[in-house]
From TrEMBL:
Keyword Ribonucleoprotein: no
Entry-linked SUPFAM superfamilies: PYP-like sensor domain (PAS domain)
Signal peptide residues on this chain, from the entry's feature table: none
Domain PAS: 1-71
Pfam families: PAS_9
Protein name: PAS domain-containing protein
Keywords, sorted A to Z: Chromophore, Flavoprotein, FMN
Source taxonomy: Bacteria, Bacillati, Bacillota, Bacilli, Bacillales
Length: 92
C-alpha cells in the first residue's frame, strides 16, 4: 500500500507516512490521550511516490485496576474508496 519495502519500514513509527496536512489531527489526538478518552480520526498519509491515502486511527484507553495504570490500544485501518483510487491514478 505504501510502496515501502519491509526493510525501509522496519523499526519505524507510522508517523513517517505523515505530511504537513496530517498535522490537523495531532491536537485532537493529544487532547484525547491526555483526557483518557477514546478517539477515532482520519489521517492523510503519503506513499513513497508521494500519492496520499487515508488511514483511520482509533485509540482506546483502558485501565487495569491491578496495576493502577492506563494503557492505550491503537488500531490503524486503511480507508480506500473508488474515488481515492481514481485520484491516485490521476496524480501519477
Amino acid at each position: 500500500m505504501s510502496g515501502y519495502t519491509h526493510e525501509e519500514v522496519r523499526s519505524k513509527n507510522c508517523r513517517f507516512l505523515q505530511g504537513d496536512e496530517t498535522d490537523r489531527s495531532k491536537g485532537a489526538i493529544k487532547a484525547a490521550i491526555s483526557k483518557k478518552k477514546r478517539i477515532s480520526v482520519k489521517l492523510k498519509n503519503y506513499r513513497k511516490d508521494h500519492i496520499f491515502f487515508w488511514n483511520e486511527l482509533t485509540i482506546d484507553p483502558f485501565y487495569i485496576e491491578d496495576e493502577a495504570k492506563y494503557y492505550l490500544l491503537g488500531f490503524k485501518k486503511t480507508l480506500q474508496s473508488k474515488k481515492s483510487i481514481r485520484i491516485g491514478w490521476k496524480q501519477r
